[in-house]
Write a structure and sequence with these properties.
CATH architecture: Beta Barrel
Order of helices and strands: HEEEEEEEEE
CATH superfamily: Nucleic acid-binding proteins
Number of helices: 1
Oligomer: single chain
Structural class: mainly beta
Largest sheet: 5 strands, antiparallel
Distance between the termini: 19 Å
CATH class: Mainly Beta
Helix content: under 10%
Shape: globular
């Protein structure tokens, strides 16, 4: 359990995905350029590649992102946030699902 004060530390914002690139040598990661209505887009690396036959379908989609995480280095690239998704299924692995938390609001909007 965490306190409400701990939860309030997490900054969740709407981000519009501007571009998606596969990363050579990675079968999991995608490199996203995301607009949060800041001076320039942020680079976000996400291990969601296996869920998309055509990752380009993500371009133009606005999703929820955690935006106040410390930058993280992965395979020589820096990630400046984390996309939010829901997934699950039964303990046996049946009825598994994966979905991004899509939003219908302007980039940079704060989730409260």
């Amino acid at each position: 359990m965490i306190s409400i004060d701990d939860f309030k530390k997490v900054e969740i914002r709407a981000g519009k995905i501007l571009s998606v690139e596969t990363i050579e040598g990675s079968d999991k990661l995608l490199k996203l350029a995301v607009d949060f209505a800041e001076e320039k887009p942020r680079q976000i690396l996400s291990g969601i590649k296996k869920f998309f036959t055509d990752p380009q379908e993500l371009v133009g989609v606005t999703c929820a992102f955690v935006t106040n995480l410390e930058p993280r280095e992965m395979i020589g690239l820096t990630s400046q946030g984390m996309i939010m998704a829901a997934s699950g299924g039964t303990p046996e692995g049946a009825a598994d699902f994966f979905t991004l938390l899509k939003m219908d609001c302007p980039p940079g909007s704060l989730v409260k």
